[in-house]
Design brief:
single chain; binds pyridoxal-5'-phosphate; 8-stranded parallel β-sheet; alpha/beta; TIM Barrel; 11 helices; 26% helix; 18 strands; 377 residues
């Protein structure tokens, strides 16, 4: 007996394919690949290496010479982990530094920083660092989360530009709040505000996340910032009927486990905590070795699709920490050890997210440490 426990199978050829598709959508823009939160649960170092590698192990899917131009992360620890693993390419901290004393670490490790507030400006102007830093100046164009007020733009830009601690090629940046809604007028307003704030500067600019890349071509500028799309998931709302055919990307992660028990239930018998599900008739149920302790969402509702040997069956009963149960039906032939797919190839994580009233981002990030990450064969 040799059963597989929860495993996230990572397909690097799909990653390369998606990068090529993204570049095709925006042929002239450079790619700032977003790898925060352990590369959305995919494994930080391996994804970074693949994005810059000449060769992927399996090139049948795409052009392996396609490369990203820089990496973005959210925390300095993520950036330092990349440097430790030998990544020498540019790395940008999307929220900048959190402590003035980190500026020296940024300089020594050649990390680039976003500047989005007065405290960060003061700190960088007065820092004593061995070499100037490359800075991405973030302007708030309407999302009202991070970024300086557009009225402060000239002041910030001049101060940074005049500082010996700052490299001359400042990148101008903002972030879209509603780009996944093609009908939302605030995106056009953000784009035009960004245009007007930056129009007198010759600097490079960046505005688009995955949804901007897909839905708002005028948001692309000189740098695009794909996250979700790189991992092969559409950033636009999941609609079953469309099957996400808008963009040809392939899921990079397939989350798998196996059946560890198969049993027959008589009509009226229940399964799992709280007896939350009861069989209406005689049926065969399967127990799968995955649960919320692995990052499978506890709020996935009854009927959430699960693939057993590729066959779509419904989740039944409550999700527990280490297990879920599925209804295999009364003619089931499946056996202990059979392969179960929770999302990925053949089953979009976006559909599972919808069944759990969340978004694919959260499901991917929530993959826990006990899930083995392996490369697809
Ligand atoms: C996370 C993030 C992105 C990537 O967003 P996706 O929707 O995953 O493409 C881009 N820009 C910023 C500032 C981010 O924080």
């Amino acid at each position: 007996m040799a059963l597989t426990t929860a495993t996230a199978v990572i397909n690097l050829a799909a990653l390369k394919y998606n990068l090529a598709q993204i570049k095709a959508l925006s042929p002239t823009a450079k790619v700032l690949a977003v790898l925060k939160a352990n590369a959305y649960g995919h494994g930080l170092e391996r994804i970074a290496q693949a994005l810059f590698s000449e060769q992927s192990e399996d090139t049948k899917n795409g052009d392996s010479s396609v490369k990203a131009d820089a990496i973005a992360v959210a925390r300095i620890d993520e950036a330092l982990a990349l440097r430790s693993s030998g990544i020498t390419q540019p790395i940008v901290l999307l929220e900048g530094f959190f402590n003035a004393k980190d500026l020296a670490i940024l300089a020594v490790n050649n990390l680039q920083t976003v500047i989005h507030n007065q405290q960060q400006l003061n700190a960088i102007l007065s820092a004593n660092i061995p070499s100037p830093l490359k800075v991405w100046l973030k302007v708030d164009t309407g999302m009202h989360r991070l970024g300086i007020n557009p009225k402060q733009f000239s002041y910030f830009y001049q101060q940074l530009n005049a500082s010996q601690n700052v490299q001359k090629d400042i990148v101008l940046m903002s972030h879209l709040g509603c780009a996944d809604d093609k009908n939302n007028e605030s995106t056009a307003a953000q784009i035009s505000l960004f245009d007007s704030v930056t129009k007198d500067c010759k600097e490079e600019r960046t505005l688009a996340n995955s949804a901007g890349i897909c839905a708002w071509p005028t948001s692309h500028y000189e740098w695009i910032r794909p996250g979700l799309l790189l991992y092969g998931i559409s950033p636009l709302p999941f609609e079953k009927s469309e099957k996400n055919t808008q963009f040809d990307v392939q899921p990079v992660m397939t989350l798998k486990s196996s059946l560890i028990a198969v049993r027959e239930l008589a009509a009226g018998e229940s399964v799992g905590y709280g007896n939350a599900w009861q069989s209406k008739e005689t049926t065969i149920i399967g127990v799968v070795a995955i649960g919320y302790g692995d990052g499978y969402p506890r709020h996935a509702k009854n009927g959430t699709p699960v693939l057993v040997n590729g066959r779509r069956v419904p989740l039944i009963g409550r999700v527990s920490m280490d297990m879920i149960t599925v209804d295999l039906g009364n003619n089931a032939q499946e056996q202990v050890g059979d392969v179960v797919t929770l999302w990925g190839e053949q089953l979009s994580v976006a559909e599972i997210a919808q069944c759990a009233t969340t978004i694919p981002y959260e499901l991917l990030c929530n993959i826990t440490r006990r899930v083995q990450i392996t490369l697809s064969a």
